[in-house]
C-alpha cells in the first residue's frame, strides 16, 4: 500500500487486509500477531504492529478468538448435487491432509444462505480449523471471500476461470471454457452444425464458462447460433432428460447435444433411447467431467476428463504450504495454478450420416 493512501477516507475503517498490504505480509501473519502467537518472528511482529498503529486498526474480538494455538485441521466446504465430484474432491484433499499430519472436516452447506459467511466463521472458530478449501459455488462469491479474508481465515478457492483472476485471493482455477471449445469443435469436425447445448446451474461459473466455449467454437467455424437449441437447467439427470425431450421435439432437431456435465448427458442418452433415436447414428451426445457412469453408459459418453481428485490435492497442498510458511513468518507463493480438462472421445459421438427427419404436424 502506498503511503499516500493512508489518508484516504476509505481507510478510516481499516481492515486486516489493509494492515497486511501495508506490512507486506499475509492475512494469516497479521492474524497470528493479533492473537499473540509465539511462532511469529520478532521483526515480522514489529512490522505488523507498526502497520496496525499507522492505520489505527482495531481488531474484531470475534476474529481474534478464532485461533489461539496452532490448529492442524482443515475444512472442505461444498454445495454441489454431483456426488462423484464431491467424493473425488474429498479423496484428493484428504490424501494431502494425511501426508501432512492434518485432519479434515467435511462441511456441506447451502451456498444461497444469507448467513453463509457467519456460518463459516463460526465453523472455523468452534472447530478450530486452520483453514478452508472452498468448492464452487461458494468459492466464486466475492462478498463471502472478502468476509473470510477480513476475518483472517485462511482459505483456498477452487474456481472456474480461463486464467488466473489475479484478484488478490489464492485459488486453483479450471479452464472449463477451453475444454468446452474442444468438445464443440470435435462435434463440428464430425460434420454436426445443429448442436444443442444444455446448461448446468447458473450459480456455478463453470456453466457460463462451458457455454462460452461452445459459443466461441460455433463462431470460429462460422456456424450461426440458434437460440432454440439452448436450454436452461441444472446439473442433473432429470434436467438432461427434460432438456433433451424439448430439443428432440423441434421440427428441425439437433444432430448433436452437448450436456454441461455427465449427469445431464446421461439424461440426454435416456431421452434418446426412450424416443427410439439411435446414438450415435442419429444423435451424438457429449458430457463433461468424466464421471464413472460416463464409462458405464451405453454407448459410453464422449466427455472432458476433469482431474477433480488432483485438483483437490493441489488445493490442499497450496493451503497447507501457506499455513506452514505463515507459521514461520515467511512469504507465501502468490502464483495460482490452473488445470484444463482433456477431451475423451468414446462411442456416443460419431460422424453426421444424414440430416434427421423433420417432424410433421
From TrEMBL:
Q: Which SUPFAM superfamilies match?
A: lambda repressor-like DNA-binding domains, Periplasmic binding protein-like I
Q: What keywords were assigned to this record?
A: DNA-binding, Transcription, Transcription regulation
Domain HTH lacI-type: residue ranges:
14-68
An example Pfam family from this entry, by short name, is: Peripla_BP_3
Query: Region (Disordered): which ranges?
Result: 326-361
- PROSITE patterns named among the record's database cross-references: HTH_LACI_2
Tell whether Nucleus is among the UniProt keywords.
Answer: no
Any one GO MF term held by the record is: DNA-binding transcription factor activity
User: What InterPro entries does the annotation carry?
Assistant: HTH_LacI, LacI/GalR-like_sensor, Lambda_DNA-bd_dom_sf, Peripla_BP_I
> What SMART domains does its record include?
HTH_LACI
Superkingdom: Bacteria
Please tell me whether the keyword DNA-binding is annotated for this protein: yes
Q: What is this protein called?
A: LacI family transcriptional regulator
Native organism is Rhodanobacter fulvus Jip2
Amino acid at each position: 500500500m502506498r503511503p499516500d493512501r493512508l489518508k484516504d477516507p476509505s481507510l478510516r475503517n481499516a481492515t486486516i487486509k489493509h494492515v497486511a498490504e501495508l506490512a507486506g505480509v499475509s492475512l494469516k501473519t497479521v492474524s497470528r500477531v493479533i492473537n499473540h502467537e509465539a511462532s511469529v518472528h520478532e521483526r515480522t511482529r514489529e512490522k505488523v504492529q507498526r502497520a496496525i498503529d499507522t492505520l489505527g486498526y482495531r481488531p474484531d474480538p470475534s476474529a481474534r478468538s478464532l485461533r489461539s494455538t496452532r490448529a492442524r485441521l482443515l475444512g472442505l466446504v461444498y454445495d454441489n448435487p454431483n456426488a462423484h465430484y464431491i467424493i473425488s474432491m474429498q479423496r484428493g484433499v484428504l490424501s494431502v491432509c494425511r501426508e501432512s499430519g492434518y485432519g479434515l472436516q467435511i462441511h456441506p452447506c447451502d451456498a444461497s444462505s444469507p448467513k453463509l459467511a457467519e456460518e463459516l466463521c463460526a465453523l472455523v472458530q468452534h472447530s478450530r480449523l486452520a483453514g478452508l478449501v472452498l468448492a464452487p459455488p461458494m468459492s466464486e462469491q466475492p462478498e463471502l471471500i472478502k468476509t473470510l479474508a477480513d476475518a483472517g481465515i485462511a482459505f483456498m478457492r477452487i474456481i472456474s476461470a480461463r486464467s488466473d483472476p489475479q484478484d488478490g485471493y489464492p485459488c486453483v482455477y479450471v479452464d472449463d471454457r477451453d475444454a468446452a471449445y474442444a468438445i464443440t469443435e470435435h462435434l463440428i469436425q464430425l460434420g454436426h452444425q445443429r448442436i444443442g447445448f444444455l446448461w448446468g446451474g447458473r450459480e456455478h461459473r463453470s456453466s457460463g464458462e462451458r457455454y462460452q466455449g461452445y459459443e466461441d467454437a460455433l463462431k470460429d467455424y462460422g456456424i450461426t447460433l440458434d437460440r432454440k437449441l439452448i436450454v436452461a437447467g441444472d446439473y442433473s439427470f432429470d434436467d438432461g432428460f427434460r432438456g433433451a425431450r424439448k430439443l428432440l421435439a423441434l421440427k428441425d432437431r439437433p444432430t448433436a447435444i452437448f450436456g454441461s456435465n455427465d449427469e445431464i448427458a446421461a439424461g440426454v442418452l435416456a431421452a434418446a433411447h426412450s424416443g427410439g433415436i439411435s446414438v450415435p447414428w442419429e444423435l451424438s451426445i457429449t458430457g463433461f467431467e468424466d464421471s464413472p457412469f460416463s464409462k458405464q453408459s451405453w454407448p459410453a459418453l464422449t466427455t472432458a476428463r476433469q482431474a477433480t481428485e488432483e485438483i483437490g490435492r493441489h488445493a490442499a497442498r497450496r493451503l497447507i504450504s501457506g499455513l506452514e510458511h505463515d507459521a514461520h513468518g515467511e512469504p507465501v507463493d502468490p502464483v495460482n495454478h490452473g488445470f484444463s480438462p482433456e477431451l475423451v472421445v468414446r462411442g456416443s459421438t460419431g460422424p453426421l450420416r444424414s440430416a434427421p427427419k423433420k417432424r410433421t404436424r
